[in-house]
Design goal:
Blueprint lengths: L3 H25 L14 H12 L3 H4 L7 H13 L5 H23 L14 H12 L2 H27 L6 H26 L7
Helix pairs in contact: 1-7, 1-8, 4-5, 6-7, 7-8
Length: 203
């Protein structure tokens, strides 16, 4: 039986995870919407490949809106029907099916589609997040994220702190300070905004 402390602990961990993940994306210049739904080692295309192997279109419906099934489902069945035919034709149609699925999924997220990405191009942190789901080791992922975020913020602080005492000595040193200051304060403000907004973010 879970106690109120257990529930609070889980809620706190979830909040910290969301905070760490979004701050990580912010610090590293990565947009969450472009994570890996368009790569061949991402979950959407893994499900698409599995669906074609097993003739189970239901595996891919979760990646699209209900209204988009009218486009994707017939295309899936057409693709599957060509598996035993000409290899070149099948590969062309399969690629079109994959592209259509991913494009509609990204439209659902409010993101643009820029083409399918090869396996291995997924950000390491996203691979880690998938592995955490598979293994159930959420705390390990959270610890890794926190170490990275803490390191990034500490580095930004130490850089601007070192320039603080010389910021008025010359224009060049002043500009170097301002650049470091903007980088540092924007990172801190990002943390504040995430907390104020309850961890929500737009793609």
């Amino acid at each position: 039986m879970k106690t109120s402390n257990d529930k609070l602990s889980t809620k706190t961990l979830n909040a910290l995870f969301m905070l760490s993940l979004i701050v990580f994306f912010s610090l590293m210049g990565i947009q969450p919407a472009s994570a890996h739904c368009d790569s061949f080692d991402g979950p959407a295309l893994i499900d698409a490949a599995k669906a074609l192997e097993t003739n189970n279109v239901d595996l891919i419906k979760k990646w699209i809106r209900a209204e988009d099934e009218a486009v994707v489902v017939p295309l899936f069945h057409k693709t599957y029907s060509l598996k035993s035919g000409d290899v070149t034709v099948y590969e062309i149609v399969k690629t079109h099916f994959y592209e259509t699925l991913v494009r509609l999924h990204r439209e659902m997220e409010g993101a643009s589609f820029t083409g399918l990405k090869p396996a291995g191009t997924t950000a390491h942190i996203t691979v880690m997040s998938d592995k955490a789901l598979e293994s159930g080791d959420f705390k390990g992922l959270l610890a890794a994220l926190n170490r990275h975020v803490n390191g990034q913020l500490t580095e930004k602080y130490e850089k601007v702190a070192a320039l603080y005492s010389v910021k008025d000595r010359s224009v060049e040193e002043g500009r170097a300070y301002v650049a470091a200051y903007v980088d540092y304060t924007h990172a801190v403000e990002a943390v504040h905004d995430i907390l104020e907004g309850g961890g929500n973010h737009n793609h």
